[in-house]
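Risk register update: the risk that structure generation would not scale has been downgraded. Supporting records follow, first protein first.
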Amino acid sequence: MPFREYPGQEYSNFPLPADAKEPAEFVFARLMYPDGAGIRGFGRFGRRDWREGYTNWTNDYPRSDRHLMVAFRRLTRIDSRSIEQPVNLDDGDDVYNWPFLYAGRVIAWNFSDQQNAKLRDYLARGGFLICDDIWGDSEWEGFLQGFTHLFPDRQIEDLADDDPAFHTVYDLDPRYRYQILGQWAGRSGRPLNGGITPHWRGVWDEKKRMTMAVWVNNDTGDSWEWADDPTYPERYSALGFRVVINHVMYAMTH
């Protein structure tokens, strides 16, 4: 599909970079998904059709995506497009054009059987998915309800300290893997929903290749979104960029 843009929970008119139409080898693709049952709308938007934006898949979008691509261009040799790509599993075979997907604020997702089957096939063919911004036990349970429909026979496990995703570009030993709080923490000073301990988790296929990353009690999307704000702690953005660069390099080389 060509580039398209949707209104987000926080942004409805974020400017496009001057080189937005220039092609590149890597595109940061954001997975569109329907919210699960019981999920309340964000702020003034209430319940909306996920295919038209506004819902949880647009959290931090598109500002975080575009800031992240600035970082990719500065910190890696990856030829990266300056703008993101929203991906809808219902758009025929389009998802297979984007080998890397990111899903933000996945506190409950409600794919149909057909959509889950396509996402399973996408991951089996070599695709990769990151799920981010899940806080506390209640949101974790909401995420798991959707995950068990996607993979009823697979487990989510914490990454070992020597996992390649921690060392592909940057060596992220345990002392460097602190919790990433969001911009909202400047007001409260504490994690959301009692999510105190950060977790970097993954899902592996039968060949021991990680196909999904699940980042719990971390607001990695905020760490990219607010990287240019002098009031947002630099340490969060520093780790947020390093973690995602490692995972993208892992995904594109394994």
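Supporting record for the second protein:
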Amino acid sequence: MNNEKRETLIASLGKNLPEPSVNNVPAVPVQNRDIKDDYDYSRKTYRDLIDKGSAAMDSMIELAVDSEHPRAFEVLSGMMKNMADITDKLMDLQKKKDDLETKKSGGKPQAGVTNNNVFVGSTTDLQRMLAKGDVIDGDTDD
């Protein structure tokens, strides 16, 4: 009976443990998934608000022009300010995501292509570096 309980416990634990990664690719940590999910959800929400707000603003422009009522223009200006704020929040969201990714990569900016390099030093330092062979050659078509 004791062995049976043990088997049941092991089977139950196996159901609750995460599945092993496929093809030796590590599973995405829960925190990273949460950040990505939250970012995607927030971005979608902001974009939906911008789309719906643009449609509402078009209708409000027609109403304000047709009615020529000062309150309609006041509401329209408030809608324009809200749309600008939402667009600004969307850009802030992107910046925050980039900051999180930079922080995760060790605080260093993402590596990119360097087109121009500047050597800062004396000609003697440059000659020593060239003599040692500390120069990285680019792609050449020889």
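The chain is about 70% helix and 0% strand. On this basis the risk owner (M.S.) recommends closing the item.
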